[in-house]
Amino acid sequence: MACILRRLLPLVLSVLLLSACKRGELSRAWLEVCSGFAIAGSSQGLLVARAHVGDPPAAPQPGESSLKRIDQTLESLDSNPLSDAPLNIVIGNRTWSGVRSNARGYIDLEDLTGFPPPLVRVQIQLEDPRYQAAPIVAELPVYDAKPGLAIISDIDDTLLDSGVVHKAKMVENALVRSTWELQAFPAAAETLRRIGAGLPLFYISGSPWGFRKRIEDYFGRTGFPQGTFLLKRFSSEPLTDQMAYKWQHISRVLSALPQKRWILFGDSGESDPEIYRRFLTEYPDRVEAIYMHMVTPEPASSPRFAGMRTFANWSELASLGKAPPATAPPAAGTAPH
């Protein structure tokens, strides 16, 4: 029955939309800027935005019930995308006309170069005569293209206590935690804020884009430094292959900022050691340091963490100033010094 209903739902919505149009009524829609960054130099930045049918989900309030939280989570994941929507995008003093959303409502714009730091204003206007949507205005960080340091940090079980290593707990947390129930590891925000002051910062997670607002609001309230979010599109990106998913985004960021050396934060729970090992092996001259949050009982001496600094608590990094350089792992068949 559920399968039949899912098949019928698009048809029912189309009929309702056609009926509304015939009556001269406009359907409601809304826009969001999901993420993005611009580059002051000649490398390409990125804007990720999305168009939706209907109204945006109501903001969760503190103290609401677990059942309410589950309902809010499901609503955030039910994106109801507005596909093939014509949009006008203004970034700084440049305009992109006739941009269209894809089948899942996403807008990907990559030609974001030559803007002065530190921020550039973005405005997106829906130009579909069938829909009424308020324009969205946001600001994107503008990163300089000069040599220097930059940061990539995983989120779940690195910064936030998400229980990813315990799958049942992870699912429960995803369902019943709003922005008000998320929990950061002690000292994570202040440590990252100190290390990352003034640096380009990218937060990467396997969480869906529907959770962006939840995480972004929590980070803003609890003192995490502002950064660019890179989350997962469940409709088009690998669901379980974290290496394939994260590596494509890391490669994109590396190409955008080719002169930066990188400080990397991850955790031992899933594939971060292997992903960052690949980074260290393929780009040894572009890694400043790798920090691995130990959330599993493995010993720090495990080969998984060769060339990385492991820590159990963020307070261990409290006195950290400049990150020490990472060292490439020994080649296969050779003994470490």
Description:
- The protein has 337 residues and is α/β, with parallel strands linked by helices.
- It folds into 2 domains: 26-143, Macroglobulin (MG2) domain (Immunoglobulin-like), CATH 2.60.40; 148-317, HAD superfamily/HAD-like (Rossmann fold, 3-Layer(aba) Sandwich).
- Helix content is 26%, strand content 28%.
- The protein has helices at 2-22, 66-77, 167-176, 188-195, 212-222, 242-256, 272-282, and strands at 27-39, 46-53, 86-91, 94-100, 106-109, 119-126, 131-132, 136-143, 148-154, 201-208, 228-232, 260-267, 287-293, 309-311.
- Strands 1, 2, 3, 4, 5, 6, 7 and 8 form an 8-stranded mixed β-sheet that branches. It has a 6-stranded parallel β-sheet with strand order 11-10-9-12-13-14, covered by helices on one side.
Labels describing this entry:
7 helices, disordered C terminus, 8-stranded mixed sheet, Immunoglobulin-like, single chain, alpha/beta, 337 residues, 2 domains, 6-stranded parallel sheet, disordered N terminus, Rossmann fold, 28% strand
CATH class of the largest domain: Alpha Beta
CATH homologous superfamily designation of the largest domain: HAD superfamily/HAD-like
Q: Return Rg in Å.
A: 22 Å
CATH topology of the largest domain: Rossmann fold
Share in β-strands: 25-35%
Oligomer: single chain
How do the helices and strands follow one another from N- to C-terminus? HEEHEEEEEEEHHEHEHEHEE
Q: In this structure, how is the largest beta sheet organized?
A: 8 strands, mixed
Shape type: globular
Secondary structure tally: strands: 14
The separation of the N and C termini measures: 64 Å
